[in-house]
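Suppose a colleague, Dr. K., hands you the sequence of a protein chain of 127 amino acids and asks what its three-dimensional shape might be. Before reaching for any lab equipment, you can write down a predicted structure in token form. Begin with the sequence itself:
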Amino acid sequence: MPKLEWTSEAEFAAGALVNVDAATSPGDLILAVGEATGTWTSEARQATDWTQWGVLRIPLSLPEGANVYARIRTAATEGGITGATWSPYVGELADTGELRINVGAMLLNESITPGAWYQVELTLLRA
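The predicted structure, expressed as tokens, is then:
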């Protein structure tokens, strides 16, 4: 099953950062200094094998008491991604600080539709 991780500043910087910074080491997303909320939206990416969806893994650095919310959208084509509907907010933050989004389960419960192209949006909130 394919595995995709966002692990470098360059990978995060390819998306749209609003009040969020991509740290240089180890490649985490962090809230910008003085900001209470921020978002990162990934660029549209093509899955290597969308019939074998698994878990997306995203490393984060959150200040004490901060929360992160994730949503995903999928489309059959790259051009269709901007008109696709976002899923409800999902994800589980592991003890390691890694956000895990079980895309396979989302497909099974029909909160997203199958498609080879996907986009992820994270909202970080400081408590």
